[in-house]
């Protein structure tokens, strides 16, 4: 993997991690303000919003970055600038159109995206959907600017704007919900509506950062225009045909997780009620599944999301230049790094599910059990994100569509039967099976069309699994010893348990990776220099 890709990946990984980190920890005070009923109402609005955002942006950041990276490799810089100028108006138009559709159609979407029949609850969901719809106005425009920078291998603007967007959104969300509930003595629906409207406020903060970067980087981008070969003249119609071909798979990949959640929102309550649960009990279980535990499970996937964003322009460049050896090295390193970081995180999350759930929310046996079952699925989320991004990079987008449709069909077919058989864990198993089906298709296509060999990944993967098992045993022993004296039912004692157990597990894992030189093979000379400074690299 080139140093530029590693640098870009690191920047986006750091930005995405900080963004996800903030997105994780705000749920603690937010849950305390609005409770499980409020978080469920929040989720009812955010799943359709996420789907609409993906449609409104049309996969713009990755599609535009791939398009610009392709023509930059050919030194046709004017093509990308032409796309950017025309895309501004189109993104504004698509954002406003999606906003109007979502705002006006909120009552219908409330019925479509949920399986509740209570008129009062449907009215509440409608209000919250309308509040979040305002963000659709500016998000597509913002996504175009991010994609333009990423196409020039400049990941800083996207990373910084993500962090600022999250900080502004969370600050407004928590302050607004708190003021409504505790100072104005308002109702829960108003508090959650303010919380969802925070997406619009966060978007404004992100847009400000991107404008600042554009002002600072424009002289350099203008210099590139002067080096333009000028041998390629693409009409706007042909340009957008190419963007649409790129974007449709990106849209489907972007809404993959929300679509799986949508299936749960539209089937879970009915399935649970059919086996004797009340609407309140099934609603609480759905909130735990689709909001509380999902927020925790998605954290280990952060690296995969960052890699999928940086993979596309880099692999596209190698593909266009027919540099197969470079592409193979990038794929080898990407698969290994994702496995190296995601597997132990998912295993550790499952092992420490009870104190972690207590730490973030409250002590709840069902929540702990659901998190324990759900945590390993993080590995599948990560692999799907990366394999889908690779397919885009090698111009096999059609199979991304196929794999997602197969995964959705598996989830849809099995969800209700498995929920009736295994309750909440049944929905998790249906999700896992759907992702497994999609990943297997992606891996088969990658092997078939790129000639990529998985032998090195299998060998290194086995070593990573061995290290993870050793880490798991050591952490489990530590956990059992600590629970003799400390209780995972206590918030304060859960902090102690999580910090010590995670420290033991991560420390041992990092030690084994360092001594075996595995970490050197994955991250290269730059990490060696860091280890030397820390005086933990062996002579």
Automatic annotation (TrEMBL):
InterPro entries: PG_synth_SpoVB (IPR024923), Poly_Biosynth_Transport (IPR050833), Polysacc_synth (IPR002797). One of its GO terms (cellular component) is plasma membrane. It comes from the Bacteria. It is a multi-pass membrane protein. Keywords: Cell membrane, Membrane, Transmembrane, Transmembrane helix. It is found in: Cell membrane. The chain crosses the membrane at residues 12-34, 46-68, 88-113, 125-145, 166-184, 190-215, 243-263, 296-316, 337-361, 373-394, 401-421, 427-449, 461-486, 492-512. It holds the Pfam family Polysacc_synt. PANTHER family: LIPID II FLIPPASE MURJ (PTHR30250:SF21), PST FAMILY PREDICTED COLANIC ACID TRANSPORTER (PTHR30250). This is Polysaccharide biosynthesis protein. It comes from Cytobacillus horneckiae.
């Amino acid at each position: 993997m080139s140093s530029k890709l590693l640098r870009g990946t690191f920047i986006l990984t750091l930005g995405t991690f900080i963004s996800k980190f903030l997105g994780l920890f705000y749920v603690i005070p937010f849950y305390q303000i609005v409770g499980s009923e409020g978080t469920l109402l929040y989720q009812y609005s955010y799943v359709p919003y996420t789907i609409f955002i993906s449609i409104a942006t049309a996969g713009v950041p990755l599609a535009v970055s791939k398009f610009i990276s392709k023509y930059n490799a050919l030194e046709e810089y004017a093509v990308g600038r032409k796309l950017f100028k025309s895309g501004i108006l189109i993104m504004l138009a698509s954002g406003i159109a999606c906003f109007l559709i979502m705002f006006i159609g909120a009552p219908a979407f409330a019925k479509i995206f949920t399986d509740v029949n209570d008129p009062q609850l449907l009215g509440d969901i409608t209000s919250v959907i309308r509040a979040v719809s305002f963000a659709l106005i500016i998000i597509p425009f913002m996504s175009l600017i991010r994609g333009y920078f990423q196409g020039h291998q400049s990941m800083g603007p996207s990373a910084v704007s993500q962090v600022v967007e999250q900080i502004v959104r969370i600050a407004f969300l928590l302050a607004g919900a708190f003021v409504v509930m505790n100072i104005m003595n308002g109702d829960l629906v108003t508090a959650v509506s303010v919380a969802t409207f925070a997406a619009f406020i966060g978007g404004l903060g992100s847009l400000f950062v991107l404008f600042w970067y554009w002002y600072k980087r424009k002289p350099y981008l203008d210099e590139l225009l002067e080096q333009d070969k000028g041998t390629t003249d693409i009409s706007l119609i042909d340009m957008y045909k190419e963007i649409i071909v790129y974007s449709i798979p990106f849209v489907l990949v972007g809404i993959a997780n929300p679509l799986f959640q949508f299936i749960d929102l539209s089937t879970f309550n009915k399935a649970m009620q059919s086996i004797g649960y009340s609407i309140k009990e099934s609603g609480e279980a759905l909130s735990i599944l689709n909001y509380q535990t999902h927020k925790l499970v998605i954290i280990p996937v952060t690296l995969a999301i960052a890699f999928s964003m940086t993979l596309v322009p880099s692999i596209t460049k190698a593909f266009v230049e027919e540099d197969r050896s470079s592409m193979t090295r990038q794929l080898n390193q990407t698969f290994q790094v994702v496995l190296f970081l995601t597997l132990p995180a998912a295993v550790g999350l499952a092992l420490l599910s009870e104190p972690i759930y207590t730490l973030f929310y409250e002590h709840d046996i069902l929540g702990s059990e659901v998190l324990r079952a759900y945590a390993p699925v993080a590995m599948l989320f990560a692999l799907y994100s990366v394999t889908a991004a690779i397919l885009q990079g090698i111009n096999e987008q059609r199979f991304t569509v196929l794999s997602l449709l197969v995964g959705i069909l598996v989830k849809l077919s099995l969800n209700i039967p498995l929920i009736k058989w295994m309750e909440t864990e049944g929905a998790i198993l249906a999700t896992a099976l759907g992702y497994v089906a999609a990943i297997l298709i992606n891996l088969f296509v990658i092997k078939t069309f790129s000639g990529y060999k998985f032998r090195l990944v299998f060998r290194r993967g086995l070593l990573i699994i061995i290290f993870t098992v050793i880490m798991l045993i050591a952490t489990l022993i530590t956990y059992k010893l600590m629970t003799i004296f400390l209780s995972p039912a206590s918030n304060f004692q859960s902090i102690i348990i999580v910090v010590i157990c995670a420290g033991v597990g991560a420390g041992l894992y990092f030690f084994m990776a360092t001594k075996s030189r595995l970490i050197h093979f994955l991250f290269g000379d730059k990490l060696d220099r860091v280890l030397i400074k820390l005086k933990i690299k062996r002579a």
